[in-house]
Amino acid sequence: MTLPVQYLWLIPALPLLAAGIGALTPRNGRNLAAGSAILAMAVAFVLSCFALNGALQAPATHAVYNFAWFDLGHDALRLGLLLDPLTAFMCVMVTFVGLLIFIFSLDYMKEDPNYSRFFCFMSLFAAAMLGLLVANSLLLLFICWELVGLASYLLIGFWFHKPSAAAAAKKAFITTRIGDLGLLLGMLWLYDSSGSLLFYDGGHGVLEAANLASLTGQTLSCGLAVSTAIGLLIFCGAAGKSGQFPLHVWLPDAMEGPTPVSALIHAATMVAAGVFLVARAYPLMSADTLIATAPVHALTVVAFIGALTALLGALIACGQTDIKRVLAFSTVSQLGYMMLALGVGSWTAAIFHLLTHAFFKALLFLGAGSVIHAAHHEQDIRSLGGLRPRMKITFATFAIGMMALSGVPFLFSGFWSKEAILHAAHEWNVSPLPLYAGLTAVVLTAFYMTRLVAETFFGQARSPAAEHAHENHAVMTGPLVLLAVGAVLLGFLGTPACPWLQARLSGTELHSSMSQLFASGGLLLLSIGLVGAGLVTGWWLYGRKLRQTAEHRDPLAVASPAVMAALASRLGFDELYAATVGRLNSLTAALANGLDRWVIGGLVNFLGQFGVFSGTLSRETAESTLNHGFDQVSASIRGSGQRYSRAQTGEAHGYLRVIAMAFIVLVLLLVLGGSR
Amino acid sequence: MNLLPYTIYFSFAGAVLSLVAGMRSAATARAVALLTTVACWGLTLYAACGFTPSSEMLTLVDVLWIPQLGIRYHLAADGISLTLVVLTGLAATAGVLFSWNIEERTGEFFAFYLALIGSVYGVFLSADAFLFFTFYEIAIVPKYFLIANWGSTSREYGAMKLALYSFAGSALVLAGLLWIYASGPAEGFGLGQLAQAAVTMGHREQLAIFALIFTGFAVLAGMFPFHTWAPTGHVAAPTGASMLLAGVVMKLGAYGCLRVAMPLIPAGLDFWQPVIAWLAVAGIIYAGLVALVQDNFKFVIGYSSVSHMGFVLLGLAAANPLAVAGAVLQMFSHGVIAGLLFAVVGRMVYERTHTRQLEVLRKMPLHRLMPFTAVVFVLAGLASMGMPGFSGFPAELTILIGTWQVSKVWALAAAVGVLIAAAFTLRVIQVSFFGQANSAALPSTPDHPLAPVTWPERTGAILLLAATLLIGLKPDLLHNWIGPSLQSPLMQAIWSGGAP
Amino acid sequence: MTPLHLCLLISTGLFCIGLAGALARSNTILVLLGIELMLNAANLNFIAFWRFGPPSPPANGMIFVLFSIAVAAAEAAVGLALIIAVYRHQNNIRLQDATRLKG
After folding, report:
1. Cβ-based neighbours of A367, under 8 Å, separated by 6 or more
2. Is residue C100 a part of any domain in this protein?
3. Which of A383, B161, B361, B401 has its CA 20 to 30 A from that of A23?
4. What is the three-class DSSP state of C27?
5. Does A666 reach chain C within 8 Å, measured CB to CB?
6. CA separation for the pair A666, A672 (Å, rounded)
């Protein structure tokens, strides 16, 4: 069976539907929410397998299905679906790992009052990630990218009543958004210079030859090709999501979410998105490598950032004491490896490592979750210990995960995928530094994983919680076993002798022969030796003399307290950012606020006061001159009227007398006048 | 389509009716107001259904009004005004629903409210500059009384500031319009007539006139540094009025810029473009930063409004069809989202907790006391920070794409504004609804439980959320109206930058 | 002593008697009577000047007097009505007491 590309939207739509159901179910509808989420993931997994089947039949082609989202005047913003082996492999991995994590959560989260909300957010997370995978348009990818960020915010802050969780959620969202800013700008630039955001569009897509040629043809004033600039901006987004230096600070804090969330973030969904994006946009990222005069190639930057991240992450992991935090920094380091692989030109090796890493990192996180669940949320490895006899299945699977991550030779998947990366780095002719960084990180990885396992599972229980721990229910151990199987077997898909996965991904012919295994025998032996060195050092420091009490000082801290303190404080990146970016931000904000309140507001108030003042002034003038004079006149008129009214005595005789007197006077006047 | 002018008449008639009805009972006045706004909204939707996008303004009414000056009572509509008229109908209906609890002089409240709505419809439908200006002036009066009578915190101050800013702005506009009319050979105040007259004027004169008219309108659109009326006005206003203020009144200014200032004097836009764009960008970032440190819930939303209106102004300043279409879409989107945010803050939270101080709200477990409100606010906050799926995303994206074609730096700065928007929105969501729940500080003791969310609030919130989701998923609904309107002869002049 | 002089003397006496009565009496009705006397003195003058004065149109003085008497009658009616009203108010008709219209 195959899944035609136009029905590919079903894969993200199913978990989205489950998220909708989860959002609408009331609090007591726990089983409905969880059941629909798991069912949706299972069906999506089956569909992804069909899609993979179809994609493998024609590995070198890109099946697309494009449609318009909305008109933009002369042309339309178009979205699309894309089916090629990269998409299909990733979909299968995400749905499978996601499904197992969902099943694990059934038991892990069963005491949480917000059970259905949890599954709603998890489904949304998975849906966004799957949408990102099937997108054939940078815009659709960006939309899902933002939704991934949103879902991660909701999930990391799931226990928002813990201040640290709320802060971590915000930090994750804002930090990745800083990267997204670059992606957004890259997208704008890409649209402006190529007029499309579709990856493949029958010759007009941005990843196809015509557009790539025009993008590399234009150069900026600083000598960079436009494609380099866009590639670097896109890499900003990838660095944010994939926790690359210098935006890696959010990833360890993301531990504040429930453990299945960490597993999903670190294995299948969020951090894989960045690596996937660079792999997807690989033709664009690598387009400038042919320009010999370019001051810098996009992929060179990717390689160095990746190498630096791999080294930094591994170093810091050595100094952490929280079981999840050690794993988190190992994720940072492993993502650095993948970016390194992308940078040195082998995107297939990066995806290979991404797939194997998804399995063993999910395994490790769920194993850690199993430990935490059994030990009543005790996460400090100094207080654990002695879990090996108490939790046999968890120990066995965790050990497999640990060996896969450390790259123990031949049997474990991590070895093969890491080998592919180191091989690619070896062949890179720009600089040997990434190879050295990668090799150093190999030692460190083996070292800190040995430390983790020794501290957690060996020795004696160092707290009551660890003493009372016992093995979990099959709902939780089942996914562990399945993931452990995957962590072993997956490696054989891409051994140097038979690189089937790489060939399918890149759509090239498969050349299998045992001789390839030994072609780079020196490097192979070197890395085996380094893994051994790491394991032995770790065991020598931590396994030989097992920790007795939780307060016992770390052997590394005894040897070199300053180094250990620096590592434990994560090399001070958080403090650095708080002191620079954070302070700058609050300073400008306070400044703007002050400006608004005092300067602009003050000016406005001054104008207002001035208006009031001039109003008062004119009122006074009017009162004293105009009004006052008028009042005087009226008052005097009233006064005289009052005086005259006294003549009105009301006595009729008085009036008569006056009349008589007047008559007499009149007569006298007439008589006297008449005599004249 | 020809029924659209009745939105104006209905609203004013409804104002009188509710004033009369309010003397007898508050309930009747409410019913009258709701009926009026729903009827007007229905009219706009009916008109929208029968609308065929075209590049011409569709004349609805055209009679001589003051023949001596050539002033006509000319109402016309195109895709842009239709978009805004539909927004007005929606915002007005939601505003009535969220004003349901006004008990004091209800009739008068709704009378002023409906008068404001009527004049807003009038502005959006006017095709004669003088008529436009008349309605624009009428709108100021009810605004003032709504805030001064029914407002809260320092309402006289807020109302007076708002009224003075508005009048100052319209004085500038009037001066500009009269300048063109008096010194050019214009026979009337029709937009086309004025545009023809303006072209014959001297270049310097044109620049001065453009500055007058654009600044006058931009004051009401909240352009930095003339934005300070907005936060204080919003904070002082009663909920319904602040929804209208942020939802449609600020759009009046932006619409005036687009409909009057820009087509009349394209050469002026060409010259002032960098200034306007930088002011818009400054407004986006500056207001976002200010919002980041506010301790009053409503002030945060007020400043976020200014920040989002900066995007509208930036889209207008970019002066290409893409960015302007995005700006119109952003007007719609911001109208819906800001209305919703103010509704949550002013009505749903403040009326129950009686505080807007974030420090106090932080101590209340509001997400548990009012889960519906919390969900609405989170969704509205996501929409406001431009999450895909909500209308803000396609709007801001289109503006950014359009702006990028003009200047990469502006687009970069505006994109930083998006980041800041995410920061302050998340902060306010966390502090207000998901603060550190401390059961000792519960305001809801068994004696005084928080009042449950009423049906008008629920309906209003769902209406607004549905609108932003619908446009977010299918921006074509509006884009198909807006796009062709930007090809009208008057608008063509903008794209060519005043060159004949 | 012509008849005219005689008539004028009589009317002057009559007038003076009326005036003295109007000014001296406090009973309002008697004051009114005094006023009537003064009016009749004036009427006598009309008749006397008509009969004994320079030639004039026939019945000229008679008509004046007739009008004057009619006016006097109406005035008396109004005056008496006022007096009744005053009486109702203050239970007497002393003119000195009716001072309500004082300014």
Report:
1. A394, A397, A398, A401, A480
2. no
3. B361
4. strand
5. no
6. 10
Confidence of residue A626 (pLDDT cuts 50, 70, 90): low
Question: Residue B441: what pLDDT?
Answer: 47
B63 phi, psi to nearest 5 deg: -130, 155
Residue A159 has pLDDT above 60, yes or no: yes
- Angle between helix B5-24 and B26-49 (nearest 10): 170
Residues B473 and A385: their CA atoms lie apart, in Å, by 52
| Contacting subunits of B (3+ beta carbon pairs below 8 A) | A
Place of tokens 């006139």: B209
Question: Residue C78 sits in a domain of what CATH number?
Answer: 1.10.287.3510
Chain A residues within 8 angstroms (CB to CB) of chain B: 69-73, 139, 142-144, 146-147, 150, 153, 157, 160-161, 163, 166, 170, 173-174, 177-178, 181, 184-185, 188-189, 191-192, 585-586, 588-593, 595-596, 600-601, 604, 608
Model confidence pLDDT, tens digit, residues A463-498:
777 777 777 777 778 888 888 888 888 877 777 767
Q: How many CB atoms lie under 10 A from the CB of residue C49?
A: 17
Burial class (CB in 10 A: 0-12, 13-18, 19+), A590: middle
Which chains reach chain C with 3 or more Cβ–Cβ distances below 8 angstroms? A
In a domain, C101, yes or no: no
Q: Check CB contact of A671 with chain C, cutoff 8 Å.
A: no
* A349-370: b (≥16 Cβ within 10 Å) or e: bbbbbbbbbbbbbbbbbbbbbb
Cβ–Cβ gap A649/C99 under 8 Å: yes
Mutate to test the interface with B, among A183, A593, A595 (most CBs of B within 10 A): A593
Q: What is the residue range of C31's domain?
A: 3-90
With contacts defined as CB-CB under 8 Å, which chain B residues touch A604? 161, 228
| Mean local confidence (pLDDT), B251-277 | 87
Q: With bands split at pLDDT 50, 70 and 90, how would you rate the model's confidence at B439?
A: very low
Domain assignment present for C98? no
Return the structure tokens found at B40: 């007007």
Cα–Cα distance for residue pair B367/B373, rounded to 1 Å: 8
> Cis peptide before A260, with omega less than 30 degrees from 0?
no
> What is the number of domains present in chain C?
1
Q: Given an 8 Å threshold on Cβ–Cβ distance, is A188 in contact with B228?
A: no
Counting every residue written for chain B, the total comes to 500
- Answer whether B368's CB lies under 8 Å from B443's CB: no
Number of Cβ atoms within 10 Å of the Cβ of B466? 12
3-state DSSP assignment of residue A322 = strand
DSSP for A506-519, please give it. Answer: HT------THHHHH
Task: Decide if C10 is inside a domain.
Answer: yes
Whole-number Å distance between alpha carbons of A414 and A126 = 24
Distances (CA, A) of A33 to A21, A101, B371: 6, 15, 19
Residue C52's identity, in one-letter code, is F
- Is residue A539 within 8 Å of A454, Cβ to Cβ? yes
Range in A248-257, A289-298, B214-223 with the lowest mean pLDDT: A289-298
Evaluate the omega torsion of the peptide bond into residue B225 and state whether it is cis, within 30 degrees of 0: yes
Cα separation, A319 vs A561, in Å, equals: 11
Q: How is residue A70 written in tokens?
A: 């909305």
How many CB atoms lie under 10 A from the CB of residue A66? 19
For A324-347, write each residue's pLDDT tens digit: 888 888 888 888 888 888 888 888
Asked if A656 has any chain C CB less than 8 Å from its own CB, the reply is: yes
pLDDT digits 0-9 by tens, A355-398: 888 888 888 888 888 888 887 777 777 777 777 777 788 888 88
Tokens standing for residue A91: 């979909």
User: Is the bond preceding residue B449 a cis peptide, omega within 30 degrees?
Assistant: no
Q: How far apart are CA A362 and CA A96, in angstroms?
A: 11
Chain A residue numbers with beta carbons less than 8 Å from the beta carbon of C31 are 652, 656
* Least CB–CB distance from A601: residue in B228, B404, B479: B228
